[in-house]
Design brief:
Helix content: 40-55%
Distance between the termini: 28 Å
Strand content: under 5%
Shape: globular
Number of helices: 4
Largest sheet: none
Length: 86
C-alpha cells in the first residue's frame, strides 16, 4: 500500500506522491501510531491524503503490525547505506 504514493523504493517522488519514508525516523512509536491511524503528522499537522488513507486503511492495523512497520522503516537508512557500499 505504501508504494502507491511513496514509490517502489519508498523514496517518494518529486511529483504529487508522498515523501521519502525516511522521514519516519523522526517519529517515536506513539507518534507513528497516530500517523498511521489518524494521518496526523508531528506537530498535529493534517496530511490530507495520508489522513484519508490512514483512517480508511491503516486504522485497522494491530499495534503489532504498526510496531513492525515502524521498525522496518527505521531500518531504511541502514539498508540504503549497505546497498550504496556494494
Amino acid at each position: 500500500v505504501c508504494t502507491e504514493c511513496h514509490g517502489d523504493d519508498l523514496r517518494g517522488s518529486n511529483g504529487p506522491g508522498g515523501p521519502d519514508l525516511v522521514v519516519t525516523m523522526a517519529y517515536p512509536l506513539e507518534d507513528f501510531r497516530s500517523l498511521m491511524r489518524e494521518g496526523t503528522a508531528l506537530g498535529g499537522r493534517d496530511l490530507g491524503l495520508m489522513a484519508s488513507v490512514a483512517k480508511s486503511r491503516f486504522a485497522y492495523f494491530t499495534d503489532e503490525e504498526i510496531d513492525s512497520l515502524h521498525r522496518y522503516l527505521h531500518s531504511l537508512p541502514d539498508r540504503r547505506a549497505r546497498e550504496a557500499s556494494r
